[in-house]
Amino acid sequence: MSKMGEPSYLPIPGPPGLPLLGNINAIDAEVPIKSLGLLADQYGPIYQLNQLGKPTIFVSSHELVDELCDEERFHKALSVSLNEVRNGTHDGLFTANWPGDENWAIAHRVLVPAFGPISIRGMFDDMYDLASQLAMKWARQGPKEPIQVTEDFTRLALDTIALCAMGTRFNSFYHEDMHPFVKAMLGLLSGSFTRSRRPNLLNNLPTRENNQYWTDIAYLRELSRELVDDRKNNPQDKKDLLNALILGRDPQTGQGLTDESIIDNMVTFLIAGHETTSGMLSFLFYYLLKNPHAYQTAQEEVDRVIGRRKITVEDLPKLPYINAVMRETLRLSPTAAAITIGPHPEKNKEDPITIGKGKYVISKDQIIVLLLGKLHRDPEVWGPDAEEFKPERMLDEKFNKLPKNAWKPFGNGMRGCIGRPFAWQEAQLVIAILLQNFTFQMDNPSYDLRIKQTLTIKPKDFHMRATLRHGMDASQIAVALNTGGSQATASAKKKSSGKSHHGAAPGAEGKPMYIFYGSNMGTCDTFARRLADDAVDYGFSAQIGPLDSAMQNIPKKDPVIFITASYEGQPPDNAAHFFEWLSGLKGNDLEGVNYAVFGCGHHDWQATFHRIPKAVNQLVEENGGTRLCEMGLADAANSDMFTDFDGWGESILWPAIAAKFGQSAASKDASKTRSGWQVDVSSGMRASLLGLQLEEGIVLENQLLSQPGVPEKRMIRFKLPTDMTYQCGDYLSVLPVNPNAVVRKAISRFNLPWDAMMKIQNTAQSSTVPASIPVDTPISALDLLSTYVELSQPASKRDLNILADAAATDPDTQAELRYLAASPTRFTEEIVRKRVSPLDLLMRFPAISMPIGDFLSMLPPMRVRQYSISSSPLTNPSECTITFSVLNAPSLASGGHPEEQQPLFFGVASTYLSDLKVGEHAHITVRPSHTGFKPPSDLQTPMIMACAGSGIAPFRGFIMDRVEKIRARQTTAAAATTTAGGDDARPAKAILYAGCRTQGKDDIHASELREWEETLGAVEVRWAYSRPTDGGAPRHVQDRMREDHAELVALFDAGARIYVCGNTGVGNGVREVCKEMFLVERRRRIATAAATGDEGILTEFDDTNLDEEEAARKFFERIQAKERYATDVFT
Is the entire prediction scored with pTM above 0.85? Predict the structure, then answer.
């Protein structure tokens, strides 16, 4: 407590630290900016860390940053890392101490004119030259070669600064290895960062690492010295930076720069002039590829303003949307992710010095770090959609209305980036030239942003593919870049003559056919491969690829098949750009396209059921395409999708293709040899040949949560790979292996020894289809059957007929299998609902004699399973948990057994997960939630959560997130209450409705939820028991919610968000009770308005011309669009 009359100051919150080391363990060593952002989420807009005795304050709100950008009170201070960078750049513009280093002031005044508009415009031709080199490299690589995005943009930016500023060509695109400057620069930057986290004693030891650090610095300075000496010995009449450094004179003092100061700034420009630009371009293409609407809008602007002609410097100001895309990229991912400031040593006369409008006291030498990534997401400035990429918010009119100091990617005031005009022109040109000539797609559509950090940040492991537009090839693009595109385009049209870039596979036989799929979970990908295999029998050689590869490039004349699903009404990740492009077409652009569509879906998502395939089917026809046949549709809720797909292909698609293209039907014997797999079996050591785009997580804990007598529920805690991040509401995708009992059954059925080795050879003529299992490589039968194929996938009607063909020696077996395939009722009842797999049928009918190669060809490849993450990164960002139910029940596929001998059905993924032991590795990756299913970023938004069973998983993470934020801010809140007598820090109410069978049996996570409720007030948990032991009536979550009608309505009116997680029964039940509440309140409002004449209480949903069903539908549409009603419903 302060003495009477003395001001009261608030303590700055922060995590507890270790003796001497302080909070050094709170920061991720590889990506510290990630940790700093999480700490801001946890502790609020200001917090303090102590590292090795050095206290540092971090701020992230616009209110605080705006105050700290006042140059009359604060100035740029060098962070610990930048102080180490001074070893290489001394008092160059970026690392000078000012006031103090007089050379900075001289260099700044000398160089400002060199970055003026006229000088920058004069560099355009050199910039265009190098941008053209990049475009030519990508054109020659072709559309199948993944582009290492950050590496190529680093080559470009380094060559650009060297040529435009120093008149030197590094020719990075003509060498396989990066220029030695890049390696030395990275050595300086990463070495400086490492040294900043160590005691000075260690930095001064003659270690190999320290010696390399100084060797790198020596190389950088020697290279710069050589460039300066060459220019002095060979003068050029150029208005570039090098001449400005050598010849410039300070207009105030008349002094020139010393040789050492010239070298300091040469190194500075070479580093800063390319490192940030390459990062910004890399982030920009990531965001464009993740946001198809922005991508299409940007490309359409380039086409409208520039067309196919050569780009000129006059075009750049006419690209406002590109400009907005650049601003929005730097908002979300500022490459220089922080600004370091401190009290101004001369101008700030305060005693004591305070910040936060007098709330916090700081020392005169205090280091304060402004976290730009968090500043640029402050919802007070950017709104509730601050996390989203929306370039429209950055168009000039809105951008100019932003509060002062809300957008700071180029630093602050006098020490802001002097090279901003140079970088801006370079980036604008590069973006325009690339969008003009290429279409892009993610190499891995499921990639989500990961960060690599040195002094700046860049995307890590980000790869994309580039396809030339307008039918051009590499030679024609060279003409277009040099002379303009009209001549090259005409040549391309004449040369392509309707052909696409997809081409035919070398050595493939048969007529061309193209199959494009949209798939997140692998089903439609499997269908595409299945259809491509079938195409061989019908005389076609099929090329397959993701739908995005067909954007602006749908083949004409030959048959084209689109196979896609919908995900909550949105296209799959690898189809989003295609769908955005297709939706924007006008006229007859697709005339000559002969197409068919097959769609997958689940009718429980009624509002968006089959939305994407139906839209593709309609849009292609509206834009001139010719539909080959009726669209095929599969509903996972009530049928076997594989059978639906096979039936559509055999009875509708292939006959239509034959009628159009005159191909013969498949041979009658095709099904007997359709696999094309010849398998050689041998014994020997097993080999693991996993070619998976996943990473390995380590099991830290596998905990049984439920008691005996109820279905088993577990929680697994994983150690994540070092650069894998997640947020609450995200999913963990897991690649399982088949249950051991099922694998042993398959090995036994084919009479294989336990250590059998297989070598699979593809003898079919379907070389266009990449194999989903290893070919021409020895692999153990155990590995193959465990890892690569789905052994428990229910059999399709096609599978039944193939098995019947293989039972030719037993007429009874053959007749039974044919009858099962032919009878819709029996097939549904005995195969689909009982989940009878081909392996089950092989075990049931010993007379079936089938080579293992044919068996393998029937099986879809192993797919990943997706689980809601049940933890918060605020607890530990390097770990996550999943909570799940284990499927282990009597098998419906094996009838006729006594109950005690009934075989069990094992869920593939849940069995695999339940058997994992601590220390074992699993193939995992994080998939982000794109549906608004994430907790509010603040603690003042009320929450209503409803779930049953393992559907509690994401809500455990939501509540854990609140717990960490509440704990982190308790000290500050207590101090604020003591000082001001208020309780503004108290969190809003959060209610969790959780359904289970029996208290004490399967009310999972109950004890920790109770602790969080009682000690922190983080949540109120209201359980609903369907099998209570106290004699009460069974209740479900919707019953409990109905009882709390008045409270929930009040909470919703106060801004609450509603979240639902569980099976479709839970989803439908909660929606129905919410609908009831809405209609009750609607009737009340209408009746009150009629009685009082006060129509001001009515809402847009209270129009009496709307019937209740329509009003409820519009209400749910509105609250879902505003992310106030979010669901995660599973089957």
Answer: yes
